[in-house]
Structure formats: structure tokens, C-alpha cells
Amino acid sequence: MQPAIEAEVVEAIIRDGVPLIGAFGVTVTALGAGTATLVMPCRDDFVRPGGTITGPALFGLADVALYAAVLSRIGRVELAVTTSMAINFLRRPALVPVVAEARLLKLGKRLAYGEVLLFSEGEAEPVAHATGTYSIPPRA
């Protein structure tokens, strides 16, 4: 099954429709039907005391990665919104780009549920695991 939207379109939706995260410099590197891989660069303003990437930047990346996975199945539905999201920080991320791998676990008419694993680029062990639910607006 092919994705319902192109990666470049998802990237533009993130940049224009989610401007805070769009300003992070996130790129969509792969998009499948129900999956998305995004990369967030490591920037000086993401580094907090202790030499780690701040949790809010990681959370934002996880949220927008799941959004991309949802859009990969339902197409350009910009009013799909997060209804709940939880994240577990598993280990300190390295000061390198962060890779988000999102996948949908369940897609219904009004809700989509999925998970996101975050990795320091080049590492095999995840630095965080997130799960979330998106609300899909009714079709007109």
C-alpha cells in the first residue's frame, strides 16, 4: 500500500501548520502507509544543563512524527489533532540529530493510535518511546 500523501507535502504541512516544530528544522526522510521517519537536527537551543537534549524538543518531534504517520494513511487532513500522548525517556540522547520512527497501530474512522521510537542518529537503542492518539475530524 502506498502512502496517501507525499513526504514533501507532510513536511510543508508541519512547517506551515505546526510552526513551532517546523522551526525545529525537522525533515521527513521516509513515509510509508502508516509509518513515518523524521529527523530533527541537534541545535544549541535544544541542549539543556547537563548536556542533553531538552524533553520538550523530543516530545514535539514524537508528536509530529505520529502526525506524519496518521497523514500517511488519511491524506491531507490538517485538522487531525493530538488527543493524548505519553512519552517515556529511556536514556540520555547524544548531542546528534534525533531520528523518530512512527507507526500506526490502529486506525479507525475518528481515532488513530500509534507509537514512536526516538533514537540518537547512528544508535540502535531508543532514547524515548511515545504513544499517542489522534482525533480525525468527520469527513464533510
Question: Which features does this protein show?
Answer:
140 residues; alpha+beta; Thiol Ester Dehydrase, Chain A; six-stranded antiparallel β-sheet; two-stranded antiparallel sheet; 8 strands; 25% helix; globular
Characterise this structure.
The protein has 140 residues and is α+β, with helices and mostly antiparallel strands. It has a single domain, classed as Hotdog Thioesterase (Thiol Ester Dehydrase, Chain A, Roll). Helices cover 25% and strands 39% of the residues. It has 3 helices and 8 strands. The strands form 2 sheets. It has a 6-stranded antiparallel sheet with strand order 1-2-6-7-8-5. Strand 6 and strand 7 form a beta hairpin. Helix 1 crosses helix 3. Keywords: Hydrolase. One of its GO terms (molecular function) is acyl-CoA hydrolase activity.
Q: Beta-sheet strand percentage?
A: 35-45%
If helices are DSSP runs of H or I spanning 4 or more residues, what is the number of helices? 3
Give the N-to-C terminal Cα separation: 25 Å
Biggest sheet strand order reads 1-2-6-7-8-5
Radius of gyration: 14 Å
CATH architecture verdict? Roll
Mean pLDDT: 95
CATH topology: Thiol Ester Dehydrase, Chain A
Q: How many distinct folded domains? A: 1
Domain Thioesterase: 50-125
Organism: Inquilinus limosus MP06
Keywords: Hydrolase
GO molecular function, one term: acyl-CoA hydrolase activity
